[in-house]
Amino acid sequence: MDRRTFLVGSASALSFLAARKAEAGSTKGKSPAPAPAPAPAAAAAAPAAPNFTLPELPYKEDALAPVISALTLSIHYGKHHRAYVDNLNNFAAGTEFATMKLEDVIKATNGGDKMAIFNNAAQIAHHTFYWKSMKPAGGGTPAAGPLLDQIVKTWGTFEKFRTDFIDDASRLFGSGWVWLVLDGDVLKIAKTSNAALPPGKALLVIDVWEHAYYLDYQNRRKEYVVGWFDKLANWDFAAENLKA
Ligand code: MN
Predict the structure, then answer these.
(1) Given this model, what pLDDT does residue 145 score?
(2) Per CATH, the architecture of 70-243 is what?
């Protein structure tokens, strides 16, 4: 239920209760029955189901422990990700964005003045991509193939890529995301702040907003990043994205 529907509904309920109370009072016969409360304004047509929905997590909330605890995942997914969905539905209600696809909303609002819509829409997409960028018993190195070949071609060794990625994700100032992207035909590590979009085609992402790790690691972001890289990173997902 959106805010407007809630308020209309509340007003209707109050009018209804006031009318009932007035009727009850009139049965005592001590005073003339007051004029009946005005009928509530006709409710608008029932609102359509929200256009933007929370995608399912690809695993159970405890599946990434101990690197990411069930508590962190339940709040990150069930509260933060859900809030972006709820916010976007509310901000988009009654606008041209209300019935658009998420990716079209992001494209239409990127760099414009509809920051609340862009931020929430992009955060929905980033989080969906982040859940897929991890898997239980992930990490290690990518399977032999184009992804590993391109990483080695770009960084010399997978170990050098690992060091650079961990450094960038550990040091990014403030809230943001660190991505492996294909930009043109070159692999890059991209750092973005808040909800900004990465350049090129995203292959993999780590969320380094504090809400992603603070319950488990407090200020020790690097421990989260190292655990994420070595034990959760979903290289199969990155390889699929490179191929697509
Ligand atoms: Mn997040």
Answers:
(1) 97
(2) 3-Layer(bab) Sandwich (3.55)
Percentage of the residues of the chain whose pLDDT score is greater than 90: 80
Per DSSP (E only), the strands in 118-171 are: none
Q: Which of 243, 117, 120, 121 is nearest to 182 (CA)?
A: 243
**Domain extent listing, the chain:** 70-243
Q: Does the pTM of the predicted model rise above 0.70?
A: yes
Distance 50 CA to ligand 1 centre (A): 22
Q: Is the peptide bond before 50 cis (omega within 30 degrees of 0)?
A: no
226 exposure class (CB count in 10 Å sphere: 0-12, 13-18, 19+): middle
Give the pLDDT confidence score for residue 101 in this predicted structure.
97
Ligand 1 centroid to Cα of residue 209, in Å, is 6
**Positions in the chain short of pLDDT 70:** 1-48
In the block, which residue shows the tokens 């504090």?
A: 210
Q: How far is the CA of 127 from the centre of ligand 1 (A)?
A: 6
Task: State how far the Cα of 133 lies from the Cα of 176, in Å rounded to an integer.
Answer: 15
CA 188 – CA 209 distance, rounded (Å): 21
pLDDT of 49: 80
Q: Compute the distance from residue 59 Cα to the ligand 1 centre, in Å.
A: 17
What six digits make up the tokens of 104? 């079209």
